[in-house]
Design a protein that fits this description.
heterodimer; A: 1120 residues; alpha+beta; elongated; disordered C terminus; B: extended; magnesium ion binding (chain A); transmembrane (chain A)
C-alpha cells in the first residue's frame, strides 16, 4: 500500500533535516531532560567513575530465553498445568496414592510423566536454541577503549558497560545503543544497515555532532569527557531525546547520533562511540514483544469436545457410583450379610454398606480416575508434535522456495497450520504483495505530449477483457538492444538516446528531467564496475532517478549542500558535470503530498523543483503555468486507468529577494522550539510552493508479481473471497483487479474501495490502525477465518489482527514477516500454502482429533461395560500397565503418522481441484455431526468388543485342556481386540499408506504382543495378572485367536459399511477426486474444469460491495 | 485397491525416506552451496510412494463377499466342534436343601449341625470321551469385585520370607497368633463343596492333579509356603487347608485364587479320566457346604468334554455365521443399490455445500 512509502519518508525527513541544517533542532522533549522518563545519565569514557557505578545500569549481557536452569522445572511445569486436562491428570496422579485409586500409582504416573516430559523436552530444546544464540551474541568481540593503556582492547559484548568508549569496524554489528562520536569520514557521518531492526536493506545515514566529529587520535580520546543525559530505556526505534554536556556547552542529541544495537556499520571503515544503553535497555530489546498468540478454530472446538468428554466422564462415574451405592447398601440386610465373601461386616469406608452414601461418593472419585481414559492424555502433546512436523514440511517445500530472494516458506508459528485450510476471506495488501513494488518508469507526459510506447499489464488485461485482439506483443527486448535496466521500462525513440533535444519543447523536457534528477532523497553509489546505483527510500523514487539517468541526466554525487548531475549542455551539445547547490528540501508527507527542492543551478538561477500528487500540483499552478494542463490532465487520467501511479512535475523560478526573505522566516520556523513548529514549517513551504509552472507528469508501473493472476484465479475457484486493500484511485483499483483476474467478467462491483475521507484521516494516524480495523470488521462481519497477507510495516496491524497473518518477505523489509505467522517469498506461493498445505493440515488435524476421541472412547467404554459386570466396584478390566501404555505406546504413533503424513489427494490434484479447499472452509471434516459420529462409532466399537469377547470366551473352557478363561485372560483378549480394532479403524480411515503408516499401524499391534511377552515374563509380583498370560494361556488357545478375528472384523463393519455407502451416495469432494484418480481420469482436463468451475461462476457473480465507512453490509448473502 | 507408486521409485529410495538426493544438477548445486533452498527428498516433499486405497464398489462388494465366505465356514466348523462337546449341567443349590429348610436355606447352610450331603443322579446323554472335565459353576458371585480382587498378597503366596506381607489382606490378614497364610478374602472364601462320583456303584476316580496353571504352581505359589492360621479366626469363610501341604500343591486353592472375570463363572474341579458311556447314570454325592444362599447365587455341577474350541460354545459359531451372513447380505444390498441407483461418483450437485447453501453448524 501507499502508506509504506509514507512511513519511509518520515524517516527520511530526519535525515534530510540533518543534511540541510546539519544540526539537530531541539524539540520540546529536550526541555524534559532530567525529569521523569528522561533521567538517564551517562558519563562518557568513565564507566568506572563513582557516579556511573552508583547508577548501576544493567550490563550488556542479554538473555532471551524463557527459562533459566533454575526455574525451568517449576516454570515449565506451571505452564503445563495451566491446561485443564493436565490438571485433571495431576490430581488423578496425586489421588492414586490413596486407596481410592483403581490403579497402582506408578501406572497412572508414568503416562503423565511421559506426556509432560515430552512437552517439557520440546520447550527445553526450543529454549536451548535461544540460549545458544544468546551465548553467541554475548561473546562477540568489540574493541573497547582502555584508559590505562590508552588503546583499544578486544572485549566481549557481555562485558560492555554504560559509558564505555568503543570502536566498531565496517560490517560489524553494534553491541549496544551507541552515541556516535566520530567516524572514519571527515564530517563524522556513517552508514548503517537496519535489516535486523526493521528489515530495510537500504543504508541509513548517521551523523555525529560537529563538536565530537574530530575525535580521532588516542590523546584526544583519552581526554574526552562528557556527560549524556537522555531518555530512559524505551521501545521507540525512531526517536531519541538527549543532551550532550561537553566542554561546558550542551548539545541536543537526536536519533541521528544514535547507533542501535543489532544494526550494522556499512561503507564506513570505523566509528567511535559511547555506549549509552546496554543489554535489555537497548531499544531493540525493549522493542521485542511477543506476537499475540492465536488459537485456531479447531483448537477452540477441541476444547469444547474435551469439556463434553469431561461431562461424559462425570456422568458415567455418577451412574457407576449410583449403582455401586445401591449394590453396597444391599450387602447388609438385617443381620445378614449378603455378599459375605466381601466381609461387609469388617470393611473400610470405601465399601461400607452402613455408610453407603459416603462409599458412593468415594466411589465417584474412583470412577473419575477409572474412566479417565475417556480424556486423551496425550492429545495435546501429540497435536503439538504433529504441528511441529507439519511446519517442517511447509518449511521444506521446494515448490514454495523463492529463487530470487533465496527464501523458503517459513512457518513462524506452528499452531495455525490447520487454520490455513479453513480460510474463507483473504485480505491482501496491494503494493508489494500483489505487485512487486519494483517501480518501472513507463510513461510520461511532458509539455502536453505523451511519451512512452510500452503496454502495461493492465492495458493488456483490459484489452483482453474487451475482447480486442491484442496487437502483436512488442518484442520488448528487441527495442532496447536487450539491455534492461531495473526500474526503467520506458521506450520512446523521441526521447531516448539524446533525441529529446529535437523535440519542440526541449527546454521543458530538460526541466522535467532536472526535477526527476534532483527532487529526491536518493544517494548514489558507485559499484565496482564503476556503474552508479541509487540507494533510494522508495522504489518509485529510484525509478525517477534511473529514468533521468537513462535519458541523460545522470545524478552521481550528493553531498550535504549540493547535487551533481552529468548532463547534456544544450549550448555546447556536450555532456558536462553540473553542480546544483541544494538549498532546501521541502520534504514529502502524506498531508502535503508533494516534495520540492530549492536549488541554485550553475547559471545562478534559483529554482524550486516540485513533484507531487496531480491534484495538489494542479491547484498550485500559476496562471501562465497552465499551458499544458488540459493535455496533462487527460494523460494522467489515462495513465491511472492503465494502472499506473502518476505524479505531476512542476517548477518555478525564484527571485533572490523573495527567496532571501522566505528563507529567513523558514529557518526561524525550523529552529523554533514551539509546539506548532511543524505547522509553521508547512505553512512556509506552502507559501513558496506556489505559482508553479507545469512541466508534465510521470507514470510508473508497479508490476504485478509473478503468477499473481493465476494464483488469484485458483483461490477464487477455491471460493475464497479476496479483498484487496488499496489506496489507489477507484479506477486504478478496478483495472488492477482485472489485471490480476481478481475481478471477472460478469462481476458487478469491485471488492472494496478505500477512498472515503474517513480513511484518509485514519491514514495519517497510522496505517496499522486502518488495516487492523478493516480486518477486525471483516472478521466480525463474516465470522469466518480471515487470512491477511502483506509485506510492509503498514500491514503489521492487519497481520496480527487476522486469524492468520502471512508475510511476504519482499523488498519492503522484514517487519511484516516478523509480525506474521507464515512467511512466503512470493504471493503466488499462497496458492500452495492454502490449497495444499492448508488443506492437508486441516484434514490431518481434524481426522487426528476425531480419531483420538474415538480410540479413547472405545477404550474407556469397555472399562465401563466391564464395570457393569463387576457391580461397579471400580475394578478395571485390564492390568494397570496395559492401560497406561495404551495412549503412549499402542495407539500413539499411528495417529501421529496420520497427523503428519496423510494425504487425501496429492499436491498436484489439490491444486488442480481447488474446490476441494471448501472442505475446510465448510468445516465438513470437523463439524459436530462428524465428531459425534466418531464418538458414536467409539461407543459402538466398545459394545461390540466387550459383548462379543465376553460371550465367546468366558463360561465354558476356552482350551482343549479344559481351562477356563479367568479375569486375566478376558483382560488380555479384550485388550487385544481393542488394540487391533482401533489400529484397523485407523487403517480404514486413512487414504495414504506409505511404509511409515504400515510400520506404525502394524508395528503398534505387533508391539502389543511383544510387550505382553516381555511384561509377562517378569516375576509375577511385578507382572501380576499378566504373568505368562500370552505364552501359557492365550496363545495356545484357538478360541483366543478366532475371537480376535471375529471381534475386529465386527468392529470394522459399521465404519466400513458407512464409508462404502457415503462414498457412493454422499461423496465428498476428495472422494470424487480419488475416484477419478483411481480411474485414471484425472488427466481429462475438460470434465475436471467443468466440474470445478460450475459453482465458481455462480459465486463470482456474488455482489460484494462494501464501503469502508459502513461495513455493516452483510456479505452473507449467498446464492441459493 | 489401487497401488500408486509415484514414479519409478526403487524400493531403496522408498525405504530410505530420509535419503537426501539433490534434484538439481551438480554444477548448479555447487554454486548454491549456501542457498537456503530446501533439500529434495521424497520424504520432505511428501512424495513417498504410497498405496492409496479407495472404496470402489468392486472393492466394497469383494470385501463383504470375502468376509462372508470366510466367516460362514469358520462359524460352521466352530458350531460343529461345539456340537461334539458333551456337557452335563446340574444345578444343585436348590435341590440339595432338605425340604424342611427350603424356607430358610441360609439357616441350613450356616448351621454346623445339618447334614450337608446330597446325592444327585446325572444322565450321560452321549458318549463322553475321556478326559471328562468337572467344573463347579457359581452364579452372582463377584470374584471381580475390587475389594475382593485386591484382597490377596502375591508376595506372601510366593515366598515364606514375605509371610507377614498382609497389608492388602485386611480383614483376613492377621489373627492373634500371627499372619494368616494364605491371607485375604479370596483364600478365606475358598469354595468347599466336594463331589464324589460313581457309576453303577463303582466309584469314579477324580483326578485333581494339574487342574491349575503350571505357571501358578511354579511361580506364584511357593513350595515352601504352608498354610498357617488359616480359617482360625472368628468367622469361617470357606474351605480349610491341610497345613502340611505347601501352597504350590493346593491346586483347589490355586484355581480359586485365579479370580474369575465375570460374576458367573466355572472353575475346574478335576478330571474323570475314563469314558462315560451314553445313558449311563452317574451318581454324585455332593457335600453342599458353600454358602451361595445369602446372596442368591446358583451352584451348578458341570461335566464336560472339550474340543479344539474348548467347551460347549455355540455363541462363537452363531456369531461367525451371523457376521458372515450380514456381510453377504450387505454385499448383495450394495450390488442392488449400485444397480438400482447407478449414480457415478463426481456429481457435483450432490456436494454437501450445494445441497445446503446456508452452511453447516459451525
Amino acid at each position: 500500500m501507499e502508506m509504506a512509502r509514507v512511513r519511509k519518508r518520515s524517516i527520511h525527513l530526519n535525515k534530510l533535516c540533518s543534511l540541510a541544517c546539519c544540526r539537530p533542532t531541539p524539540t520540546d522533549e529536550h526541555a524534559q531532560i532530567g525529569q521523569k522518563g528522561y533521567s538517564r545519565v551517562v558519563y562518557c569514557n568513565e564507566p568506572d567513575c563513582q557516579e556511573q557505578i552508583r547508577l548501576n545500569y544493567r550490563g550488556n549481557y542479554v538473555s532471551t530465553t524463557k527459562y533459566t536452569a533454575v526455574n525451568f522445572i517449576p516454570k515449565s511445569l506451571f505452564e503445563q498445568f495451566r491446561r485443564v486436562a493436565n490438571i485433571y491428570f495431576l490430581v488423578a496422579a496425586c489421588v492414586s496414592f490413596s486407596p481410592l485409586a483403581p490403579y497402582s500409582a506408578p501406572s497412572l504416573l508414568v503416562p503423565l510423566i511421559v506426556v509432560i516430559g515430552a512437552t517439557m523436552a520440546k520447550e527445553g530444546v526450543e529454549d536451548w536454541r535461544r540460549r545458544l544464540q544468546d551465548v553467541e551474541a554475548n561473546n562477540r568481540k568489540v574493541e573497547v577503549y582502555d584508559k590505562r593503556s590508552c588503546s583499544f582492547r578486544e572485549s566481549k559484548w557481555k562485558n560492555l558497560r554504560v559509558g564505555d568508549l568503543v570502536k566498531v569496524h565496517k560490517d560489524e554489528y553494534f553491541p549496544a545503543d551507541i552515541l556516535l562520536l566520530s567516524s572514519s569520514y571527515e564530517g563524522g557521518v556513517c552508514y548503517v544497515e537496519t535489516m535486523n531492526l526493521d528489515g530495510e536493506t537500504n543504508l541509513k545515514l548517521k551523523h555525529a555532532l560537529e563538536v565530537t566529529s574530530s575525535l580521532h587520535d588516542a590523546e584526544m580520546l583519552k581526554e574526552f569527557r562528557a556527560v549524556v543525559k537522555c531518555e530512559d530505556p524505551n521501545e521507540h526505534l525512531y526517536s531519541f531525546v538527549g543532551t550532550l554536556y561537553y566542554d561546558c556547552q550542551h548539545y541536543s542529541l537526536a536519533l541521528q547520533q544514535v547507533l542501535l544495537r543489532d544494526s550494522k556499520l556499512k561503507n564506513t571503515d570505523y566509528i567511535y562511540g559511547v555506549v549509552i544503553f546496554t543489554g535489555h535497555d537497548t531499544k531493540v530489546m525493549q522493542n521485542a514483544t511477543d506476537p499475540p498468540s492465536k488459537r485456531t478454530k479447531i483448537e477452540r472446538r477441541m476444547d469444547k469436545i474435551v469439556y463434553v468428554l469431561f461431562s461424559t466422564l462425570i456422568l458415567v462415574s455418577f451412574i457407576g457410583s449410583l449403582f455401586f451405592e445401591i449394590k453396597t447398601k444391599e450387602d447388609i440386610s438385617g443381620a445378614n450379610y449378603r455378599r459375605w465373601y466381601l466381609r461387609p461386616d469388617k470393611t473400610t469406608v470405601f465399601y461400607d454398606p452402613r455408610r453407603a452414601s459416603l462409599s458412593g461418593f468415594f466411589h465417584f472419585l474412583t470412577g473419575l480416575m477409572l474412566y479417565g481414559y475417556l480424556i486423551p492424555i496425550s492429545l495435546y502433546v501429540s497435536i503439538e508434535i504433529v504441528k511441529v512436523l507439519q511446519s517442517i514440511f511447509i518449511n521444506q517445500d521446494q515448490a514454495m522456495y523463492d529463487e530470487e530472494t533465496d527464501r523458503p516458506a517459513h512457518a513462524r508459528t506452528s499452531n495455525l497450520n490447520e487454520e490455513l485450510g479453513q480460510v474463507s476471506t483473504i485480505l491482501s495488501d496491494k503494493t508489494g504483495t500483489l505487485t512487486c513494488n519494483s517501480m518501472e518508469f513507463v510513461k510520461c507526459s511532458i509539455a502536453g505530449t505523451a511519451y512512452g510506447r510500452g503496454m502495461t499489464e493492465v492495458e493488456i488485461a483490459l484489452a483482453r477483457k474487451r475482447g480486442e485482439r491484442l496487437p502483436e506483443p512488442m518484442p520488448i527486448d528487441d527495442i532496447d538492444s536487450g539491455i534492461s535496466v531495473k526500474g526503467f521500462n520506458f521506450r520512446d525513440e523521441r526521447i531516448m538516446n539524446g533525441q529529446w533535444v529535437k523535440e519542440p519543447h526541449a527546454d521543458v523536457i530538460q526541466k522535467f528531467f532536472w526535477v526527476l534528477a534532483t527532487c529526491h532523497t536518493a544517494v548514489p553509489e558507485k559499484t565496482e564496475s564503476n556503474e552508479i546505483v541509487y540507494e533510494a527510500e522508495s522504489p518509485d523514487e529510484a525509478a525517477f532517478v534511473v529514468a533521468a539517468k537513462e535519458v541523460g541526466f545522470q545524478f552521481f554525487v550528493r553531498n550535504q549542500t549540493s547535487i551533481k548531475l552529468h548532463e547534456l549542455d544544450l549550448v555546447s551539445r556536450k555532456n558536462v558535470d553540473r553542480e546544483y547547490k541544494l538549498l532546501h528540501v521541502l520534504e514529502f508527507s502524506s498531508a502535503r503530498k508533494r516534495m520540492s527542492v530549492i536549488v541554485r543551478n550553475p547559471e545562478n538561477q534559483l529554482l524550486l523543483l516540485a513533484k507531487g500528487a496531480d491534484s495538489v500540483i494542479f491547484e498550485r499552478l500559476s496562471k501562465h503555468g497552465r499551458a499544458f494542463e488540459a493535455q496533462t490532465k487527460e494523460h494522467v487520467e489515462r495513465y491511472s486507468e492503465a494502472g499506473l501511479r502518476t505524479l505531476a512535475v512542476a517548477y518555478r523560478e525564484l527571485g533572490d529577494n523573495e527567496y532571501r526573505l522566505w528563507e529567513e522566516e523558514f529557518i526561524k520556523a525550523k529552529t523554533s522550539v514551539t509546539a506548532d513548529r511543524d505547522v509553521l514549517v508547512d505553512e512556509l513551504a506552502d507559501r513558496i510552493e506556489r505559482d508553479l509552472i507545469l512541466l508534465g507528469a510521470t507514470a510508473v508501473e508497479d508490476k504485478l508479481q509473478k503468477g499473481v493472476p493465476d494464483c488469484i484465479d485458483k483461490l477464487a475457484k477455491a471460493r475464497i473471497r479476496i479483498w484487496v486493500l488499496t489506496g489507489d484511485k477507484k479506477g486504478t483499483a478496478i483495472n488492477i483487479g482485472y489485471a490480476c483476474s481478481l475481478l471477472r467478467h460478469g462481476m458487478k462491483q469491485i471488492v472494496i474501495t478505500l477512498e472515503s475521507p474517513e480513511i484518509e484521516a485514519l491514514e495519517k494516524r497510522g496505517d496499522k490502525e486502518v488495516t487492523a480495523k478493516v480486518t477486525r470488521q471483516v472478521k466480525s462481519i463474516t465470522g469466518k477465518t480471515t487470512l491477511a497477507i502483506g509485506d510492509g510495516a503498514n500491514d503489521v496491524g492487519m497481520l496480527q489482527e487476522a486469524d492468520i497473518g502471512v508475510g511476504i518477505s519482499g523488498v519492503e523489509g522484514m517487519q511484516a514477516v516478523m509480525a506474521s505467522d507464515f512467511s512466503i517469498g512470493q504471493f503466488r506461493f499462497l496458492e500452495r500454502l492454502l490449497l495444499v498445505h492448508g488443506h492437508w493440515c486441516y484434514r490431518r488435524i481434524a481426522m487426528m482429533i476425531c480419531y483420538f476421541f474415538y480410540k479413547n472412547i472405545t477404550f474407556g467404554f469397555t472399562l465401563f461395560w466391564f464395570e457393569a459386570y463387576a457391580s461397579f466396584s471400580g475394578q478395571p478390566a485390564y492390568n494397570d500397565w496395559y492401560m497406561s501404555c495404551y495412549n503412549v505406546f499402542f495407539t500413539s504413533l499411528p495417529v501421529i503418522a496420520l497427523g503428519v503424513f496423510d494425504q487425501d489427494v496429492s499436491a498436484r490434484l489439490c491444486l488442480k481441484y481447488p474446490l476441494l479447499y471448501q472442505e475446510g472452509v465448510q468445516d465438513i471434516l470437523f463439524n459436530w455431526l462428524r465428531i459425534l459420529g466418531w464418538m458414536f462409532n467409539g461407543v459402538l466399537s466398545s459394545i461390540i468388543i466387550f459383548f462379543l469377547t465376553t460371550n465367546s470366551i468366558t463360561g465354558q473352557a476356552f482350551r482343549r485342556d479344559g481351562q477356563v478363561a479367568d479375569f486375566a485372560v478376558l483382560g488380555v483378549t479384550m485388550y487385544t481386540c481393542v488394540v487391533w480394532a482401533v489400529n484397523c479403524q485407523m487403517a480404514l480411515s486413512i487414504n495414504y499408506f506409505t511404509w511409515i503408516q504400515h510400520l506404525f499401524i502394524w508395528g503398534s499391534i505387533a508391539f502389543w504382543y511383544i510387550f505382553l511377552m516381555i511384561y509377562g515374563s517378569l516375576p509375577p509380583t511385578l507382572s501380576t495378572t499378566a504373568y505368562k498370560v500370552l505364552v501359557e494361556a492365550c496363545a495356545p488357545s484357538v478360541l483366543y485367536w478366532i475371537t480376535t478375528l471375529l471381534v475386529v472384523i465386527s468392529t470394522l463393519l459399521p465404519l466400513f459399511s458407512y464409508r462404502a455407502f457415503q462414498i457412493r451416495f454422499r461423496p465428498m469432494e476428495h472422494d470424487r477426486i480419488q475416484k477419478r484418480r483411481s480411474e485414471g481420469l484425472e488427466h481429462e482436463h475438460d470434465t475436471a474444469q467443468r466440474l470445478s468451475e460450475s459453482p465458481v461462476t455462480r459465486i463470482s457473480s456474488d455482489l460484494i460491495s462494501i464501503r469502508i465507512d459502513n461495513l455493516k453490509a452483510s456479505p452473507r448473502r449467498k446464492n441459493s | 485397491m489401487e497401488m500408486n507408486n509415484n514414479g519409478a521409485a526403487t524400493s531403496s529410495a522408498a525405504a530410505g525416506g530420509g535419503g537426501v538426493s539433490t534434484s538439481t544438477s551438480d554444477s548448479s548445486s555447487a554454486a548454491k552451496r549456501n542457498s537456503k533452498k530446501p533439500k529434495y527428498s521424497r520424504f520432505t516433499q511428501q512424495e513417498l510412494p504410497a498405496c492409496k486405497p479407495i472404496l470402489t464398489p468392486g472393492l466394497v462388494i469383494t470385501t463383504f463377499t470375502i468376509i462372508g465366505i470366510i466367516f460362514i465356514p469358520i462359524g460352521l466348523v466352530s458350531l460343529s466342534a461345539s456340537e461334539h462337546v458333551v456337557e452335563i449341567v446340574d444345578r444343585y443349590d436348590e435341590g440339595c436343601v432338605p425340604p424342611n429348610y427350603s424356607k430358610d436355606k441360609l439357616a441350613y447352610i450356616q448351621s454346623s449341625l445339618t447334614n450337608k450331603s446330597c446325592t444327585r443322579t446325572l444322565n450321560v446323554p452321549k458318549l463322553m470321551k475321556s478326559p471328562v472335565f468337572i467344573y463347579y459353576q457359581l452364579d452372582n458371585f463377584y470374584q471381580n469385585h475390587r475389594r475382593y480382587v485386591k484382597s490377596r498378597s502375591d508376595k506372601q503366596l510366593r515366598s515364606k520370607a514375605y509371610e507377614r506381607d498382609t497389608k492388602s489382606c485386611d480383614p483376613e490378614g492377621f489373627v492373634l497368633d500371627g499372619p494368616i497364610v494364605p491371607c485375604g478374602l479370596i483364600a478365606w472364601s475358598l469354595f468347599n463343596d466336594t463331589y464324589g462320583f460313581s457309576v453303577k456303584s463303582k466309584m469314579l476316580e477324580v483326578n485333581k492333579k494339574n487342574i491349575a496353571w503350571d505357571s501358578d504352581k511354579e511361580h506364584k505359589f511357593g513350595s515352601d509356603v504352608y498354610p498357617k492360621n488359616f480359617q482360625s479366626g472368628g468367622l469361617i469363610g470357606g474351605a480349610k487347608l491341610n497345613s502340611s501341604i505347601p501352597l504350590s500343591e493346593q491346586e483347589d486353592l490355586i484355581v480359586w485364587m485365579r479370580t474369575a472375570a465375570l460374576p458367573t463363572f466355572r472353575k475346574l474341579y478335576g478330571r474323570i479320566e475314563e469314558d462315560l458311556q451314553a445313558n449311563e447314570q452317574i451318581t454324585v454325592v455332593i457335600q453342599n457346604n458353600y454358602n451361595t444362599y445369602s446372596f442368591g447365587g446358583k451352584k451348578k455341577l458341570v461335566l464336560s468334554t472339550t474340543s479344539w474350541i474348548g467347551g460347549k460354545n455355540d455363541f462363537l459359531g452363531i456369531a461367525y455365521i451371523s457376521v458372515g451372513g450380514l456381510c453377504l447380505f450387505l454385499a448383495v444390498s450394495f450390488i442392488l443399490l449400485y444397480v438400482i441407483k447407478p449414480r457415478p461418483l463426481g456429481d457435483p450437485s450432490y456436494l454437501s455445500w450445494n445441497r445446503s447453501p446456508s452452511g453447516h453448524p459451525n
